[in-house]
Design goal:
Layout (H helix, E strand, L loop, with lengths): L4 E4 L3 H12 L4 E4 L3 H9 L8 E3 L2 H6 L6 E4 L5 H10 L8 E4 L5 H13 L3 E8 L1 H7 L2 E6 L4 H11 L2 E2 L2 E2 L5 E2 L2 H30 L4 H11 L7 H11 L21 H12 L4 H14 L1 H10 L12 H34 L5 H7 L10 H11 L10 H24 L4 H13 L6 H12 L33
Parallel strand pairs: 1-2, 1-4, 2-3, 4-5, 5-6, 7-10
Antiparallel strand pairs: 6-7, 8-9
Helix pairs in contact: 1-6, 8-11, 8-12, 8-14, 9-10, 11-12, 12-18, 14-17, 14-18, 15-16
Length: 482
C-alpha cells in the first residue's frame, strides 16, 4: 500500500507530526539525511505504527501515491532549496512539495513561482505549537499554490488542533501568505512573552512577591480575560522547584535567545511603514538581555537603581499590572493585525483576519480566549482598520487605561525597565491623538532640506516650501536634478 504523504526531517517536530498523521489514519513515509535516525525512529516512537521508513529520496518518492505529497521539516534557508533541487527530478507534474519550517515569506514566494514553472505545486505552511502541538494538534497556516490545497486539506485539518469543532487550519492565501502569517504570529509571540516578563519583574522586584505568590497570581489571571497558553505555562514555571526546593526560574541565566522571526516581523513593518513598536521593543529586549557581561559592568559603574519596594496597597497594584498586561496585549495584536492588513494589500495575499484569529485559538503558542474577541470584531466588520476601533476593545482600553499607567509609573519610579508596556502606551496615546508634533518635524525637514510640508488650511496633497532663512531659495528638494 502506498503512503499518503512523505515527510523529510526527523527532528522532534518532524517525528511528532508523522506520529500525529499516523494517529489520524494517514500512511506516512519518512526520510532523514542521517539514515540511522530513521531506524531509531521506527524502533522507538514509531514502533507498532504504519509509518514507512525510507533510506533515500528515491525510495521515499517511490512509496507515495499520486499525486505525490512531500513535506519538508528541515532548517529554513539553503537546506530547503537543496532538498527541493534534489526532489524536482524525482517528481512528476502535479506533485506537491510542502515546507513546514519557519521560512521567510519572500523565499516561499520565490519557490512557489519557480516550482509552478516546472509544473509542480508548492505550499509554505507555518506550523505552530512546538513539540506538544505537533504531536497532538498544532495550528497550521498553509499558503502557496492554491491548486495544492484540495489534496492536502484533509490531512492538515485532521491533524490540526480543534476548537469548538473547527480545525485550527485553513487556507491562508497565495505564495508566501502562510509563512507571512506565521511570521507575524511569532512576532506577536515575542510581544506576549516580553509583556509577561515585564509583569513578572514588576511583581517580583517592585512588589517583593515570591515565586509561590506569582504562581497564584498567574493562575488567577489564567481564569479570566488573560487566559492563554503562555499565562498557563508561566504559572506552572513559578511553581516548579529545583532539587533544593528553590524556584528553578530564579536560577536560569537572564539571557534570551531568538531564531529571527521576530526580527523579520520588525523589518517588514519598517518596509511597510507600520509602527510595530511593541514587537520591535520585544526583539530589542532580547538583544539587550544577551549583553550580560556589559550589563553587569554597567550595574557596577552607573548609579544604582532604587531598591525599595512599593509602599501601599499591593493588591491594587497587582490589579493594575494585570490591566497593563491586558491593555498592552491588545496593542500588540492591534499592531500585528494592522501589519497583516497592509501586507495583504501590498502583496496581494487577500488575508481573512477572522479566519486567522480562528487558526490561532488552538494549538499555537499564542492561543488564548482573547482571540475569540478578535474573531468577533472582524465578523462584525471585516474591513476594520484597527482592532482598537472595535467596540469591545474601545471599552477594554477604557477600563484598563488607569491601571496601565500606574504600572508604567511604578517601573519608572523604581527603575524597573518596561519597554513593551511603555512603548505600547506611547503608541496608544499617539494613535488617539488628533494632532501630533510632526508639524514641527516637517518644519525642521523643510528648513534644512527643503522637503516641503502640507498646510492645515489647504487641501491635502498640496505641498509648500518656505525660505526660512531668507537666503535658501524657493526650490524644494523634490525638484532637484542630481
Amino acid at each position: 500500500m502506498k503512503a499518503n504523504i512523505g515527510l523529510i526531517g526527523l527532528a522532534v517536530m518532524g517525528q511528532n507530526l508523522a506520529l500525529n498523521m499516523d494517529d489520524h489514519g494517514f500512511r506516512v513515509a519518512v526520510h532523514n539525511r542521517t539514515s540511522s535516525t530513521v531506524d531509531e525512529f521506527l524502533a522507538g516512537p514509531a514502533e507498532n505504527t504504519q509509518i514507512i521508513g525510507c533510506h533515500s529520496l528515491e525510495e521515499l518518492v517511490d512509496k507515495l501515491e499520486l499525486p505525490r505529497v512531500v513535506m519538508l521539516m528541515v532548517k529554513a534557508g539553503d537546506v530547503v532549496d537543496q532538498y527541493i533541487e534534489k526532489l524536482v527530478p524525482l517528481l512528476a507534474p502535479g506533485d506537491i512539495i510542502i515546507d513546514g519550517g519557519n521560512s521567510l515569506f519572500t523565499d516561499t514566494n520565490r519557490r512557489t513561482q519557480s516550482l509552478k514553472e516546472q509544473q509542480l505545486l508548492y505550499i509554505g505552511a507555518g506550523v505552530s505549537g512546538g513539540e506538544e502541538g505537533a504531536r497532538h494538534g498544532p495550528s497550521i497556516m498553509p499558503g502557496g499554490n492554491p491548486d495544492a490545497w484540495p489534496t492536502v486539506k484533509a490531512i492538515f485539518q485532521a491533524i490540526s488542533a480543534q476548537v469548538d469543532g473547527q480545525p485550527c487550519c485553513e487556507w491562508v492565501g497565495e505564495n508566501g501568505a502562510g509563512h507571512y502569517v506565521k511570521m507575524v504570529h511569532n512576532g506577536i509571540e515575542y510581544g506576549d512573552m516580553q509583556l509577561i516578563c515585564e509583569a513578572y519583574q514588576l511583581l517580583s522586584e517592585g512588589l517583593g512577591l515570591t515565586a509561590d505568590e506569582l504562581h497564584q497570581i498567574f493562575s488567577d489571571w489564567n481564569q479570566g480575560r488573560l487566559s492563554s497558553y503562555l499565562i498557563e505555562i508561566t504559572a506552572a514555571i513559578f511553581a516548579f522547584k529545583d532539587d533544593d526546593g528553590q524556584p528553578l526560574v530564579e536560577k536560569i541565566l537572564d539571557t534570551a535567545g531568538q531564531k529571527g522571526t521576530g526580527k523579520w516581523t520588525g523589518i517588514n513593518a519598517l518596509d511597510l511603514g507600520i509602527p510595530l513598536t511593541l514587537i520591535g521593543e520585544s526583539v530589542f529586549a532580547r538583544c539587550l538581555s544577551a549583553q550580560k557581561a556589559e550589563r553587569c559592568t554597567a550595574a557596577k559603574t552607573l548609579p544604582a537603581r532604587p531598591v525599595k519596594h512599593l509602599e501601599g496597597d499591593k493588591q491594587a497594584m497587582i490589579a493594575a499590572i494585570g490591566d497593563a498586561l491586558y491593555a498592552a496585549k491588545i496593542i500588540s495584536y492591534a499592531q500585528g493585525f494592522w501589519l497583516m492588513r497592509e501586507a495583504s494589500s501590498e502583496y496581494g495575499f487577500a488575508l481573512n483576519y477572522g479566519e486567522i484569529a480562528l487558526m490561532w485559538r488552538g494549538g499555537c503558542i499564542i492561543r488564548s480566549q482573547f482571540l475569540n474577541d478578535i474573531k468577533h470584531a472582524y465578523d462584525q466588520n471585516p474591513e476594520l482598520e484597527n482592532l482598537l476601533l472595535a467596540d469591545y476593545f474601545v471599552e477594554a482600553m477604557r477600563g484598563s487605561d488607569a491601571g496601565w499607567r500606574k504600572a508604567v509609573m511604578l517601573g519608572i519610579e523604581l527603575g524597573i525597565p518596561t519597554p513593551a508596556f511603555s512603548s505600547a502606551l506611547a503608541y496608544y496615546d499617539g494613535y488617539r491623538s488628533e494632532r501630533l508634533p510632526a508639524n514641527l518635524l516637517q518644519a525642521q525637514r523643510d528648513y534644512f532640506g527643503a522637503h516641503t510640508y502640507e498646510r492645515i488650511d489647504q487641501p491635502r496633497g498640496q505641498f509648500f516650501h518656505t525660505d526660512w532663512t531668507g537666503h535658501g531659495g524657493k526650490t524644494a528638494s523634490t525638484t532637484y536634478t542630481v
